Amino acid sequence: MASKNTFKKMGTSVPTADGKNSSGKAAYDKGAKTALAQLAVTGCFNQTYYTTAEDQLAQVLNLAKQVEPEFIAKVAVYARESGFMKDMPASLVVYLTTVDAVAARKAFPKVINNGKMLRNFVQIVRSGAFGRHNVSSATMKRLIGGWFESRTDDDVFFSSIGNNPSIGDVVKMSRPSPKTKERSALFAHLIGKKMAKFNNEEFEVEGSLPARMAAYEAYRKEPKGELPRAPFEMLTGLTLSDEDWKTIATRATWTQTFKNLNTFSRHNVFKDAAMVKLVADKLRNEKLIKDANVFPYQLLMTYKAVVEGVRGAFTKDEQFEVPREVIEAIQDAMEVAVSNVPALSGNVVLCPDVSGSMSSGQITGFRKGSTTMVRCIDVAGLLAAVFLRRNSTARVLPFEGDVRQVALNPRDSIMTNATKLSAIRGGATNCSAPLALLNKERASVDFVVFVSDYESWSGHYGASRGTPMMEQWAILKARNPNAKLVCIDLTPQTMTQAPDREDILNVGGFSDTVFKVVDAFSQGSKDHWVETIEKVEL
Fold first, then answer.
1. What pLDDT score was predicted for residue 46?
2. Domain segments of the chain: what residues?
3. DSSP label at 490?
4. Residue 437 in contact with residue 475, Cβ under 8 Å?
5. Residues in the chain, pLDDT under 50
6. 3-class secondary-structure state, position 210
7. Can you give the pLDDT at residue 5?
8. Is 491 left (phi over 0), alpha (psi -120 to 50) or beta?
9. pTM, 2 dp
10. Which positions ≥6 away from 343 have C-beta within 8 Å?
11. d(CA 402, CA 34)
């Protein structure tokens, strides 16, 4: 009789849990590299159900000390370019400036790629969280000076919005060297000076400003003639006519349009049928959507804001009607934003977590100062809905302490199905529940996708040294030896309920890059998430 232990089916073993999650229950440590990547693509330094901003910062510092600077640089670039994150990748670059100037120089231009990111970088430095309190070091000045040198005068002008710090503050602290008289005037203007020097000659700033900034300043003093081409936020602070607002809407980028639909409505832009068509066409433009790097969940929240009476994102007096054509264009934009969702083969099961921690967990503010926040449950429902769109025969098993039943039509819009799923809202978290149901039914399964925070604490915790989720996965694998499991994590944490191995993928984040990683895994790629990040070119 052959040994059952030696010749047991591949993937049916339950590995011993080597950690505990935030609920104090058995879990698997992701390892420093995967955990750092998880924090980088999901951490926003915001309070979540289980994690504070301070905890996230402490975890980043601890994990960064365990991996080589080159990998930290690649994580920062991946989080910025593929995960579309801001504060976390900027923080990693700040950390690199304290430990490895070469790695910092490689990552900086790819991560700090616009004025907002530069201001984030300087703000993080000034906080002292990573040991520095100013940008006076040679490395810092070289990095920031290089940023300014690589930008045109118009680039710097269009970056000169926002405060604490402002771009003027950055100039004052880092003292970049101007290469032209116009750049010298621009820097002087940004820090509030009326006189400047170039080549040891003093001159009046106002008469030497770059053309676009000069035109804006002239219009601000005497608003007549054509509206100047200036940063969107600068224009909206002026006294404007309805025709001016149409001009702004016409010039607005995709992101500015998407974020200001109610503003445009308030200023009568949508009373012009031609403008309605222009805005709708812009919103559904495939190239503009891709270039905007929009999160699918941001589209969902905008859709809910304009369709469902805004629900807390605005005051009652700020509710304005957005035309149906524009609302439909947002749905079209969603279809484009998730166009690379993989079509998975075989019997697919989608398991969005609808437990209490998912309902309470705040991923990021949808609008500054707003009471409407993006919750993990919103994103989980959305991801399940988009997978269902490409995999119409997939079975959806939302779970909390147990599996919840929900009727979904794959032909319904992504927005509709996502809203149905996020409305369930349960209590306990039992990640093993969907797998236990599949095992009870002896279901044939090829691919299972979980979307959760993996803070599982409910369910049967018996004598096994592993997690209940892995116990049920082992049973399912014995019956379906080729089945694969994907765990999409939406929260900044270091533990999981199912460890990486040939048949299990852990991946985190909110961007559509998650779909690309899942697609590669479904097609047999041996590279998991960390291997994907390690291929990033610096």
1. 66
2. 19-30+342-534, 242-337
3. -
4. no
5. 1-10, 310-319, 361, 364-372
6. coil
7. 35
8. beta
9. 0.88
10. 390, 391
11. 29
CB 58 within 8 A of CB 20: no
Q: What is the mean pLDDT of the chain?
A: 88
pLDDT at 464: 65
Distance of alpha carbon 186 from alpha carbon 203, whole angstroms? 12
Alpha-carbon distance of 426 to 353, in angstroms, equals 9
366, 342, 286: which is closest to 486 by C-alpha? Answer: 342
Asked if residue 410 has a cis previous peptide bond (ω within 30° of 0), the answer is: no
For residues 511 and 86, give the distance between their C-alpha atoms in angstroms, rounded to a whole number.
13
pLDDT at 527: 84
DSSP 501: B
Confidence at residue 463, expressed as pLDDT on a 0 to 100 scale? 54
Number of neighbouring beta carbons within 10 Å of residue 527? 14
Helix axes 138-149, 101-111, angle to 10 degrees: 30
Contact at 8 Å (CB) between 105 and 69? no
Q: HSE-up of 403 (CA within 13 Å, CB side)?
A: 17
CA distance 446 to 394: 11
Instruction: Select 19-30+342-534's CATH number: 3.30.930.30, 3.30.300.180, 3.40.50.620, 3.40.50.410.
Output: 3.40.50.410
Q: What is the pLDDT of residue 372?
A: 46
Residue indicated by tokens 């190239």: 287
Q: Is 197 helix (H, G, I), strand (E, B) or coil?
A: strand
